[in-house]
Write a structure and sequence with these properties.
Chain lengths: ~625, ~60
């Protein structure tokens, strides 16, 4: 029956082609009966169920290229893990090898069979989030451990398919973009399929990728519960929540089935079906969720929008007016928190753990690519490195990561051409960019230069200050005995004068009123000194206080002839007061107060920025699992 | 970030610092000012007997 690569369908006689060197089965395009090839013989294997509608952009005969190797798609398997259906395309390469091109939610994964790969982990050792070492890939993270069921197939295949057959598998990813599937069949030893995630463009399939959201592609239908109009915008939609009656519909089987009626319907912040271009991606709003976590009895609710565009599915999340645009991320690209002490790492950037909890789907509207159910919960953890956020969601079978980017409501309103203004922000968003962060570095750079310049100038002034003694006077220390100096000249002003007084008092106190009198004008500056020295022992401890030296600076002293008047006050008691105190006048001294003030003024702005930066961060973390006040 | 205004502010602070140092202006005065009448200045022993210096206000030591 076979003639090399061409045969006839055993059921209807239509031409049947076995173009792939590894092809073992083929489905007749006319009667959809499957034929199995055994040596040169073909045997009919029954009719294959119709294909399930998916979001595939590929078809049999599509040609592409991976790492310089060309391939042609010869057939596909349609698989389901219960919630969603995806396609595994059989790719035949020009060098007689073959691989799978998995297509799910707008993403492509190319893998090749590695039948002799040694040391593969047993299925029981795997769970989502666990790290494993895989031959040829190195360290990988388990994204999903699940069971697949064969739903349908078409074209040629390198396996003998059996609709309804189930097998266990684990999907793994690596930091460098590697991807692998461990196929355990019905629970036996694993077969490794290893490769990597590629974009449509990388695989030479750019022409297959829609350049924009498909326009007017929605299927107009009616809700079986309320009869209201509903629109399905995606072929791979599995669940739909009617915005009219709140009926949650299972739309995966063609005929809609009402799964339940949802209560308390909020209005989506962006209407379902709205299209916009955000961060370079043109997307359409498909679904709306209200989700919440409850911490210590307090419910924290936020809203999410499911989007779809050329890059696949995306999310918009909003809490208190703070928006995040999230893209899916393979688990392998994230260093797991348990290995990094509460932080997650992506592309060498550290993300601090912000909040975790059991997130519940409270409200559902629109369409979803999985069989979503109200009340379902998943374990979520968020890690932040503003303006970025890593979010993980873990179920018993799967861990999925998203990379979020903070966006403003104004940008969203502009992107989706929405009327009015977005709701105002409340507080600080978990991934909101700290507005003071970007200002700190240039401010401190400039401040550093200014402070250095000030210190250099101060050093120059201090070095050039003459510090010339213009008077030295011994003042008799007798109460009421006023001492007048001989007149002395001060020149080179205006300038600062320093007056110092010193007396070797012991257990005594001396006060000096010192007046610097300009002889011609009578303008006088008066300073007072207290010279004292007391000490003793109290409760076994020695104490001392007072100072035998005092100094004061008089600023802006003009040139002229001056007289110094000194009037002492003495409290001798049991102590010792010397006969005289030494009083000196020094001109041209360097003033420290202008320098200190200038340094403070220059540093004030960056210091204020630091304070505002810290206050902003404190507000950010107050609603987290790690508020600053308790750390 | 616009650092221009801050740069101008820093320059003004530096200029003010230079001016203060050049004029020896003490921003934290440690003295008080008194104008002694010419009658005191002209009188023999006037400085000794003049009592309106403002005083140090000493109240004694230990």
């Amino acid at each position: 029956m076979t003639t090399g690569v061409s045969s006839a369908c055993p059921q209807c006689g239509a031409p049947l082609r076995f173009g792939g060197a590894a092809s073992l089965a083929a489905v007749c395009a006319y009667c959809r009966f499957a034929s199995l090839r055994t040596g040169a013989r073909l045997e009919a294997a029954g009719k294959v169920p119709d294909l399930v509608a998916t979001d595939t952009r590929l078809s049999i005969g599509t040609a592409g290229k991976v790492d310089g190797r060309t391939f042609t798609l010869l057939g596909r398997l349609q698989l389901s893990q219960g919630e969603a259906v995806w396609n595994e395309w059989y790719a035949s390469f020009g060098d007689a090898t073959w691989g799978w091109v998995a297509e799910a939610q707008g993403r492509l994964f190319v893998t090749f069979p590695k039948p002799t790969a040694p040391g593969l982990p047993p299925l029981g050792a795997l769970q989502p989030g666990v790290e494993v070492r895989l031959p040829g890939l190195g360290r990988a993270t388990v994204d999903e451990v699940n069971e697949a069921r064969l739903v349908s197939f078409e074209g040629e295949l390198p396996v003998r398919p059996d609709v309804g057959e189930r097998w266990r598998y684990a999907d793994c990813s690596t930091e460098s973009g590697g991807f692998a599937t461990l196929d355990y069949g019905s629970g036996g030893d694993a077969v490794l399929y290893a490769g990597r995630e590629v974009s449509y463009a990388e695989a030479g399939l750019a022409d297959c990728a829609p350049l924009a959201v498909p326009a007017a592609a929605a299927r107009a239908l009616r809700c079986p519960n309320c009869g209201g109009p509903i629109e399905l915008r995606r072929p791979d939609t599995k669940a739909f929540a009617c915005p009219s009656c709140g009926g949650l519909l299972d739309v995966s089987q063609g005929n809609f089935r009402v799964l339940g009626i949802l209560e308390s319907r909020s209005k989506p912040p962006i209407p379902l079906g709205a299209q916009g271009t955000l961060l370079g991606e043109t997307v359409q709003v498909l679904g709306f969720l209200v989700r919440s976590i409850t911490v210590d009895g307090e419910r924290f609710a936020w809203r999410e929008l499911l989007l779809h565009g050329a890059g696949g599915y995306r999310w918009l999340s909003v809490y208190n007016g703070h928006w995040l645009f999230l893209r899916p991320l393979p688990a392998g690209k994230v260093e797991l928190p348990r290995l990094t002490g509460g932080a997650a790492y992506y592309q060498h950037r550290g993300f601090k753990h912000f909040q975790g909890g059991l997130a519940r789907y409270d409200e559902i509207q629109g369409e979803f690519y999985w069989e979503i159910r109200a009340g379902e919960t998943v374990m979520t953890n968020d890690y932040v490195a503003p303006p970025w956020l890593l979010s993980s969601e873990t179920t018993p079978t799967e861990t999925s990561w998203s990379l979020g980017q903070s966006v403003t409501g104004a940008d969203l309103w502009k992107a989706f051409k929405l009327p009015g203004a977005p709701p105002p922000k409340v507080g600080v968003g978990q991934a909101e960019q700290n507005p003071f962060g970007a200002r700190l570095a240039p401010a401190w750079k400039l401040a550093g230069a200014a402070l250095t310049a000030l210190l250099l100038l101060a050093g120059l002034f201090a070095a050039r200050a003459p510090r010339q003694e213009v008077l030295a006077l011994d003042v008799p220390l007798a109460a009421g005995d006023v001492t007048l100096s001989e007149p002395f000249d001060v020149s080179g002003g205006p300038q600062a004068l320093e007056i110092t007084a010193e007396a070797a008092v012991e257990q005594a106190w001396v006060g000096l009123d010192v007046a610097l009198i300009e002889e011609e004008t009578g303008e006088t500056e008066v300073v007072a000194f207290e010279l004292s020295s007391f000490s003793g022992v109290e409760d076994g401890e020695r104490w001392s206080e007072g100072s035998r030296h005092g100094s004061a600076v008089i600023g802006s002293v003009l040139d002229g002839r001056y007289v110094l008047r000194v009037e002492p006050q003495v409290e001798r008691g049991q102590g010792l007061v010397p006969r005289t105190a030494r009083v000196r006048v020094v001109r041209g001294v360097f003033l420290t107060t202008p320098l200190v003030l200038a340094l403070l003024l220059v540093a004030a702005w960056p210091l204020l920025l630091v304070l505002r930066f810290v206050a902003f961060e404190k507000r950010r973390w107050q609603d987290s699992d790690h508020p600053w006040s308790s750390s | 970030m616009r650092t221009g205004p801050y740069a101008v502010f820093c320059a003004l602070v530096a200029i003010a610092f230079l001016a203060l140092e050049a004029r020896g202006l003490n921003l934290l005065p440690e003295s008080h000012h008194v104008s002694v009448p010419s009658s005191v200045r002209g009188a023999p022993g006037g400085y000794r007997t003049y009592r309106s210096w403002g005083g140090g206000g000493f109240r004694g030591g230990k």
